[in-house]
Specification:
Layout: E1 21-24, H1 65-83, E2 87-93, H2 106-120, E3 124-130, H3 142-153, E4 156-160, H4 165-174, E5 180-184, E6 192-194, E7 197-199, H5 216-233, H6 238-252, H7 267-286, H8 288-299, H9 305-314, H10 318-330, E8 351-352, E9 355-356, H11 359-367, E10 377-382, E11 394-399, E12 406-415, E13 421-425, E14 428-432, E15 448-451, H12 462-471, E16 480-481, H13 509-513
Parallel strand pairs: 2-3, 2-4, 4-5
Antiparallel strand pairs: 1-14, 6-7, 8-9, 10-11, 10-15, 10-16, 11-12, 12-13, 12-14
Amino acid sequence: MATLSNYTAPPSFFRRKTAGFHLNRRPFEKTHLQLLFSNTQEFWWPMGYSPLRRRSSYCCSSATVNENKKKIGNGAAAAAAQSEIPVRIVALVGEGSVSPLKSTPWHDVMIHTAEKLKWVDEEFEMVVFTDNVCRANDESHETVVQLQEALRQANILMLVAVTNQESIKWIQMNSQGVPNIICFDSSPTLTNKLGGSLIQTTTIRSIFSKLPLPQSKKIKESEDVVTSVYEAWERHNSDDIRFCLLVIINAYIRPVSILKNLRAKGFSTLNCMVTNCGPQILNCLLDANCRKALQCLNKCSPVDQVCNYQCIVSYESPQLEEFSLCVLQKHNCLELDAKIPDKPVVTPMEKFRGDDLDHDLAEDLFVGWLGRLDWSWRVVAGQNPAYDQFPCQYQLFYRGRAKGSFWYEPVFQVRMLDGKLVWRRRRYRVKRGKTPARVAGQSYTGAVLVSPNGVYPDQSQRGRLVSALDRCSIKEWELFNVDNCSCKDPPLGLPEGSSLHRKIKIEDFEDSSAGKNV
């Protein structure tokens, strides 16, 4: 019989390739409605990381249907050709500089960011240099020549923690042809540039002190982009560092596919909502909590998942749930089609302690310690900044009464906007197979590290942990430690008629605590 060991680092729930599962999450958990009516008569519906995109203008013409079809065909071909154009990025970091991500060197962080950009698009190419190259005495040195050549071809120059005056002078002399330059934690004498126009950022809210820019529309677009980029950077996590670059690429170079679910589709979305979800909209507006949730969401940045989710959990109500389920899941008024990422490629487990890993055994691994303990697993750390770092996270996996049914119920604490700490419990059906629901704005990305007691593995287990994370292309410094200190009276327990393990012997758990290997 197979047994469980003390610690395991399962792959993130968004792929679940090990078990062949997909979590059928309710869309309202991760998406929300944000109504921002303006004179443009557009309304926004941010979905997780929502970048700011350029608006399109439309006009009427007397073109025939065939001419329109031809134009559409030509436009699609042009878009496809544009998507194949390489995007070249140069990252230049201060020599010896240290990031706030568990004091990891910025050089290591940016090397990993270059790898993560490839997961979005193979044509996104980023090379990383340290600024000591700029101070080389020999201009013909191979590395200096490489940097100069990279700058001549670069679409974006990203400067991180560059403060050396000699390096600054060299950069200013050699980067004039780069159309987009963005500076983080660097000398104020280094100037940002977007779309070929210089920008001076004294504060995030007062960005455009260096004027004039050619058009007021361009000022507003660049202001929005810079605000989004700097807000993302200040969240200090690896996903948002990559997101900073994706926003700039999307706004000034070419569309980024994973950022396409940005806003409502205009009149068709509004018509769908009113036609199909009128009662749910009215009930939400008449309910104090649902109305407060929408007002709270309007105040969040479209790209701040933490703020967005905090609004939802602070003001959640049956009316908000029904509203979200109607608009997003039942009728998909936003025509969303979030695809599960296919990169990085995580090789699934094929065996567990010599036994073939079938669905029953895989489900048993998720059921974990439940039966011996009141929970399957406790979350030690998570990689997603919005959803994996809530305090006191318990996971409950169990088999339902219906044949073949399997359920996942996370129990966790949330600090509400008024400062109160409350328990929340969610319920998701886990489906076998490879066809997930596709009516969400953004697929979940991330991973969780779990243990039976919520304690981080000690040094003797670190080698196994790092090895498991490497197989998922995750660095240990990307994880957020979960606060498991004050977890009084969690709302645990299982529905009547639930069942647990089929193949793993619960009696062997004590033996696994003694140090048996997975």
